[in-house]
Specification:
2 copies of one chain form a homodimer. Chain A is built from 14 helices and 14 strands. Chain A has about 375 residues and is of the alpha/beta class. Chains A and B meet through α1, α3, α4 and α9 of A and α1, α3, α4 and α9 of B.
Chain lengths: ~375, ~375
């Protein structure tokens, strides 16, 4: 009788509307009905990704869309700058390595944010770089990078700006066109509130122009083929996970009804409340520039960190994420994106206090909730209206 | 009030058990629970694919798995023989082209089957071919190729035998290990009765050996990474469409409860019944060597073919597939795979008669059903038991 509460930064909780859509009998995907649905979904995606340009839908995880961005923009032997500030940012480099692309690595300590001035210096040193690969919200560290400021810097160069927003899109403010992002890469199982299986890319006119000049090391991920089918149909060159696209249509209705600006600001408040609550409990935050969609926090060192996470799940059904790579056993991560709401966060804070108490730490019950509630009380729309 | 009846060769009807599984709230995928589920699914897949060796699960459509087979086995500049006997077989060549692989094209008229003797001659002429890419069930033409005989021929060469069984696996007899198939490529939305979004590959020891010698033009589809995670976890290198894997577990229970041999023989009977029914209606079959999972048939030429298909769907909710490429407007295709059953076929035959009558053709009502029923009466287990 343990109620499950998924609080990980992907996959996240899926709204009932999307789940029920996934339970519908399958229909064919090469039909006028599907094209109509797909067209609506594309309109919605443009709105929530804050772009007027084309959006591509891939049947893959976010890593597949990262590969698509790399191989369609940078030819073998081309040069790319990778802003490597976490486990997922590293993936950009690994993809470049696999396809014979020269990487200029900009290594940033995990937990720190990329400094736009460093990107400027790198671009001056490497004017032949075809692209800069960065991250909006690095979910391995909980850092939100200053993509707006980095975008300004990249705009002054010849390079394209490609942003991994797999977990960050639709939870952290991200004005794709306005901020000069040429390609935004997004995953389905984060703030878009779907199961894993779809990934998305936005394409600026400059990205399209570059794609047209590159013979990509790609077939399945050949974005020219995808874009042509979007323009024709809209359709897809290969069979899409179309039942997921139908479920996405449901979630886009929810997001658009609230409005993407409100979704962003709600997440910002939730993130502040989470941090205030955790600090009131006496836990130490990890990220230097915390993201809006998840909070990373050091595991308490005076109790057994593994036992702590196990009890959170075993007693309260709360699944948070541990650390990745060298952060394993050092931090844990709580998501606040999609339909994760205020009461989910307050419950999680209360559960953390109860578990710490069980494990023998001295705890002031209610401190975490109180601090978080104070933030929510100022930020909550009800307090204003 | 039109009840929908999906009779296309992919996607096919999804059993209720899998649909309900897809409606469950999402859980995390990096857990002991998921690894246990995944391990069970892999055991099931090995059984239904008739292999003792590794099976890889990709989050992509079948085309992604085809690309994975190509780029992991054949290096850039390497040579491959493509048995090009339909729209989907052509995809092998297009993938090879995209990655700089030299293709020996063996073009076969659409609707005809590949002659194993021709494959033998090609292998003798091209002893340096790394792989032969063929098809089990070409769903664009409805032909079932003699993969067993082709496998015998390829076994006598140095080449690996790679078979697109995206639509054919689990409906047409296919003894992967016994027939010398090194890589079998399978899709989720055909006889495995899932929505699109997953694809599968089997890997013979020879395929694994070859993979280890090739630096693949791949990251997302790098099969070494996938295989290593299978051996470790089992797990996946990138986030999998794990809710689809959970739904697959449900379908594998159904298939294994019946037994793959029975699934194959049931499809064979259903295919014979479909052909008998269509011929009794006076329609002309298209495929020279008809497949067990779908039947391709010429559109009647004395009535409007487009109107015929439209009425089948509009009046009876029956969605069959039209022809692809140059076969568009010439043939249509009826699937009998997965949970498509005897009564679905009889209903479809009855509907065809009613629509032909409506469109002004002289029809002997009941002729199609009668002919099909006669086949089912001999083949049906109830007649024997």
């Amino acid at each position: 009788m343990i109620k499950k509460r998924l609080m990980t930064p992907g996959p996240t909780q899926v709204p009932e509307e999307a789940l029920l859509s996934l339970a519908r009998q399958v229909t064919h995907h090469r039909t006028a009905e599907f094209r109509k649905l797909f067209a609506e979904v594309l309109v919605g995606l443009k709105e929530v990704f804050a772009t007027k340009h084309d959006v591509i839908v891939l049947t893959s995880s976010g890593s597949g869309a990262m590969e698509a961005a790399v191989v369609n923009l940078v030819p073998r032997g081309g040069k790319a700058i990778v802003l490597e500030a976490g486990n997922f940012a590293q993936r950009w480099r690994k993809i470049c390595d696999a396809f014979g692309i020269e990487v200029v690595r900009h290594e940033v300590t995990w937990g720190e944010a990329v400094d736009p001035a460093d990107v400027k210096a790198l671009l001056e040193k490497h004017p032949d770089a075809v692209a800069v690969f960065g991250t909006l919200m690095e979910s391995s560290t909980g850092v939100g990078h200053d993509v707006k400021a980095i975008g300004e810097v990249v705009r002054g160069s010849k390079a394209l700006f490609v942003v991994d927003a797999i977990s960050g899109a639709c939870v952290m403010e991200c004005r794709t066109d306005e901020w000069g992002i040429d390609v935004l890469v997004v995953g389905s199982q984060k703030a878009l509130m779907l199961p894993p299986g779809l990934a998305f890319l936005t394409l600026s006119p400059a990205a399209v122009k570059q794609m047209e000049q590159v013979k990509p090391q790609a077939f399945y991920f050949d974005l020219k083929q995808h874009r042509n089918k979007i323009l024709e149909g809209p359709d897809t060159p290969w069979t899409p996970a179309h039942t997921m696209i139908a479920a996405l249509a449901e979630n886009l209705k929810l997001i658009r009804a609230e409005g993407i600006e409100k979704v962003w600001s709600r997440a910002k408040t939730l993130a502040r409340a989470t941090r205030a609550g955790l600090e009131a409990i006496g836990l130490e935050l990890f990220a230097a520039r915390p993201a809006d969609g998840l909070t990373s926090v050091y595991l308490p060192t005076d109790v057994d960190g593994g036992a702590f996470l196990k009890r959170l799940e075993g007693r309260f059904g709360i699944k948070v994420a541990g650390g990745q790579a060298h952060l394993k056993g050092k931090i844990f991560r709580i998501a606040h994106m999609g339909i994760v709401d205020e009461l989910d966060i307050l419950s999680t804070l209360a559960a953390i206090e109860l578990v710490l108490d069980e494990l023998g730490r001295s705890v002031e019950f209610g401190a975490g909730c109180r601090a978080a509630q104070r933030v929510l009380a100022e930020g909550h729309p009800a307090a204003v209206g």
